Amino acid sequence: VHAARVGVPAPRRRSGRGSPLVMRDSLSPERAADTSHEPLFDTGLWLLSEPMPWLPALSATLLMPFGSGTDPTGMGGSGTVLHDWIQRGAGGLDSRAHSDALEGLGVRRGGSAGREAASLGVSFLADELASVLPLVASMASEPRLEEAEFAPARELAQEELASLADAPTQRLFNALMERFLDGGPGRSPYGTREGLAALTPATVREDAGRRLGPRGAILAMAGGAEWQQVLEVAARAFGSWQGDAMPLAEPALRPPGTQHVRADSAQTQIGVAFPAPAPGDPEVYTYDLALHVLS
Q1: Rounded CA gap, 162 and 181, in Å?
Q2: 189-202 burial code (b ≥16 CB/10 A, e <16)
Q3: With bands split at pLDDT 50, 70 and 90, how would you rate the model's confidence at 33?
Q4: In the predicted model, is pLDDT for residue 30 greater than 50?
C-alpha cells in the first residue's frame, strides 16, 4: 500500500480553479510505502493506493471530513443534505450532464454521510482513470450547488429521516449514541425534523464554505493502476480543491444511565453502550474477540 499526504492546507476557498498541486518530492513506489508522514503536495489531502496490476478495474473512495458531528447548531442534517447536493452537478456540468458523463464511462458509484465523515465511492475500468477522477474531484472542489437542486436533496434527507419510523433497530442505535456521547459526536446523520426544515440553499452553501475542504480528506484507491500513475492523475484532478475543514470535537461520554424511547411497535429493542479500548490499545484485540463471542 502506498501512502502520501498532501501537506499544508491552502487558503480557504469553497470552489473554483486554483493552482495545480505542487509535488514536493518525487518518490519511487518502493519508497512511497514508507512516506505516509511526508507531504508531497501543498493541500491537506491524503492519497492511499494499493496497486493490483492484474485487475482490469479500479475502485476509489473519497472520504471527506464532514458529517453530523460538525453540523451547525440548529441545522441537524446539514452534512447529509450537503453530501447529496454536491452530487447534483459539478464543474461545467449540470446534474444530468455530470451523471451522464459518469455513466458513459461505465462508473458505478455510491457513498454515504455519517457522523465523522462523508464519502463518495466509484468503481470503473482502470483505463478510464484519467477521465473519471476529475469528475469525482469536481464534486468536492467545484460543486455547482444550484438552487433548483437543493429541494430534492433536502427532501431525500427528510424521507430518510421519516423512514426510521419503520426501522426500530436504527432508531435504537441513533437514540443510544445520542444518550451515550455528548455533543456533536452523538448526533445522528439523519438530522432532525426541525433542523432539516430550517435549512436553506444559502445556509448550506455557507456550511460548505466552512468544512468542504481537503484538509484531512482521504482518497483511497485499489486496483489496476500503478502508484505513479495514480499520483499524477490525482495531482491534476484535485489541484483546484481548496477550503477549510472543521475538526470533530473529542468524544465525551454522558453520565451512565438509562433511557426508554416509546414507540408504537410490537417489538422491544435493547441496546447497551459502554467505553471500549481505542485502536492501538494492547487490549483492543482481546476486547474485539470477547465482544464477538458474547454477541
Answers
A1: 23
A2: bbbbeebbebbebe
A3: very low
A4: no
The pTM score is 0.84
Closest CA to 108 of 61, 140, 63, 149: 61
Residue pair 66/243 in contact (Cβ under 8 Å)? The answer is no
pLDDT in tens, 106-127: 999 999 999 999 999 999 999 9
Distance in angstroms (rounded) separating the CA atoms of residues 114 and 71: 11
> Do 222 and 81 touch, CB atoms closer than 8 A?
no
What is the amino acid identity at position 252? A
26: amino acid identity, one letter: S
Pairwise CA distance, residues 11 & 7, whole Å? 13
DSSP class of residue 206? H
Q: For residue 156, which amino acid is it?
A: L
Contact 80, 112 (CB under 8 A): no
Distance between CA atoms of residues 15 and 295, nearest Å = 46
What the block records as the C-alpha cell of 253 is 461520554
